[in-house]
Structures are given as structure tokens and as C-alpha cells.
């Protein structure tokens, strides 16, 4: 086991790596396995881990950590062959608990608000089986949270949840295996949609006077908080995940996450109103190929670099199955 509490110690690492500019404030990074990478891009406002613990409990996992606003409070655990991507300018009221289990992943976009007491998990941890067939019934699934999402106090986000950009999950809400469309409000246990066509303003109203309350009865201008489908910018969460996991090494995955987050399209994580439950994750090669081909056919992807990578992913997957490597065949 190796424990890092400052960047001065990174030279002591064996075959794990911390790359980029990161500051520690009563925080630590623990490596139990091998071949893991924590990547923080160079920034004018580098990430500051405050009262945080990031634990790599297995091998070949990747954490991408964008610049925080003003601090990053995490209790993050990963095991084998997982990735956790956390974008930039996210706000944490207290420590956000995240757990990537059973080779599943967690993706968080930019400009999100996280209140107190929030848990995000990809697994039930213990296995459940049908009494008749003895087949497992609680497979682990990745969790995706888009850009500019507001998660309320004591909310719980469980396996298979997909939260579209601009969505709001209310205090005490629990979501599992659902797709929450962009610019909607959800609450309750289990979470249900309360209202559509909503966006939120990030600054706090705690200190508002009568004049402030009056002035903010109408949002002044702009639609940067409203998300739409963009034929050239929107990418399905599952396609994004398939592109990353198809890459063999932690170094390749870290590089892709860095490039993906450097120039994010505004509507990259839009989720449409027709989505009521999250589709099953791609758990076999044929399904992964089909989804990537559908994305290419509709000209959707992560700009040109993402489309080229998707082409390459399809070729690799088809090669592994002995299929034609021609894209779209």
C-alpha cells in the first residue's frame, strides 16, 4: 500500500501515477493496486482536495479530476479496471461519496452542485439471485451525471442512473436505473418526475434582501442553462463509456478522458424527454458495436476526434469477434 498526502511524494510511487497539478488539504490518495492513474489537467485554478480520500483498491483504474470550485471534497473508491471522470467547476457543500465497483464507472460533468450527504454507487455490493433460476438479478451498472446538474441533500444515486444535463434531483431522492431527462426536476423514493422545462441559477439566495428577491423574479437573458439535442455534439452516455472501456491501457483511457473534457460541447450529455428508464448497459460485443454504429449513422459523437475513435473501437471489437472490420457493415 502507498499513501500520498502531497505532490512531493509522487516520486515514491512505483507503478501508479499522479499526473498534473493537484493540491492537498488534509487529504490523501491511497494505492493498493498497480497501474492506476490520477490525472488532473494543468489549470489556473488547480484542484484542491479538501478533507478527501481517493482509494484505488485494485488495478488499472483511472480518475480524471477537473478544477474544482473552490475545493473538491470526495470519498472515492475504485476497484479494478474502472474510471471516474469528474469535470470542472463543480461545487461540493460537503464530502461526496462515490464507489466504482465491479469494473463499472462514474461520470460527472461540469458546473454541478452537490449538497450534503450524497452517495453515488454502481453496485449493490452483495449478490442477489432468483429463487427459481438461480440467475443473478442485480448486475452492477455505471452511473452518469451530466453537466450543470443539481443534486439535493441526502440524495442517493444508484447503479444504472443517467442524469441528463440541467436536471435537478431533490433532497432525499433516490434514483436507480432511471434516465432523468435534461431540465427536469425529480424527487421522492423512488424518484419520480415532478416538473419539466426547468433550469436553475447557481448563486445562493441565502443572503437575499427584499430587493434581491424582487430583482430575481425573472431570469435576465441567455439559455446556457437549457440543453437540447445537438446532432454534432450530443453523445449517449453508453457510447462514451464504450469508447473509453474499449481502450486497453489506463494511459489510453486517461488520455481520452483528458481530450474529451478539454473542449466539451454544450449539449454533450443531453437526455431527451422520452427517456423513462435507463437502457441496459452494453454487456456484450454485438450490442456495443450496434450502439456505436447507430451513433455514427446519425452523425453523433464527440466531434471529429470522437467519431474517429468510435470508428477504431468498432474495428477492434469486430476484429475480436472475427467480423468484417468495415465500419457500418
Please provide a written account of the structure.
This protein has 329 residues and is α/β, with parallel strands linked by helices. It has a single domain (2-283), classed as UDP N-Acetylglucosamine Acyltransferase, domain 1. The chain is built from 5 helices and 24 strands. The protein has helices at residues 210-215, 237-245, 250-262, 285-297, 303-321, and strands at 2-4, 17-20, 22-25, 28-31, 37-40, 47-50, 53-56, 62-65, 74-78, 83-86, 91-92, 96-100, 106-108, 113-114, 119-121, 143-145, 150-151, 156-157, 162-163, 168-169, 174-175, 179-180, 184-187, 192-196. The chain has an 8-stranded mixed beta sheet with strand order 1-4-7-9-12-15-18-21, with no helix packed on it. Helix 2 packs across helix 4 and helix 4 (285-297) packs antiparallel against helix 5 (303-321). The longest helix has 19 residues, at 303-321. It is globular and about 60 Å long. Mean pLDDT is 86; it is low at 281-286, 297-306 and 318-329.
Which labels suit this protein?
329 residues; 5 helices; alpha/beta; single chain; 24% strand
Strand fraction: 15-25%
Task: Please state how the strands of the largest beta sheet are arranged side by side.
Answer: 1-4-7-9-12-15-18-21
CATH class label = Mainly Beta
- In one word, what is the shape? globular
CATH topology: UDP N-Acetylglucosamine Acyltransferase, domain 1
Helix/strand layout:
Layout: E1 2-4, E2 17-20, E3 22-25, E4 28-31, E5 37-40, E6 47-50, E7 53-56, E8 62-65, E9 74-78, E10 83-86, E11 91-92, E12 96-100, E13 106-108, E14 113-114, E15 119-121, E16 143-145, E17 150-151, E18 156-157, E19 162-163, E20 168-169, E21 174-175, E22 179-180, E23 184-187, E24 192-196, H1 210-215, H2 237-245, H3 250-262, H4 285-297, H5 303-321
Parallel strand pairs: 2-5, 3-6, 4-7, 5-8, 7-9, 8-10, 9-12, 10-13, 11-14, 12-15, 13-16, 14-17, 15-18, 16-19, 17-20, 18-21, 19-22, 20-23
Antiparallel strand pairs: 1-4, 23-24
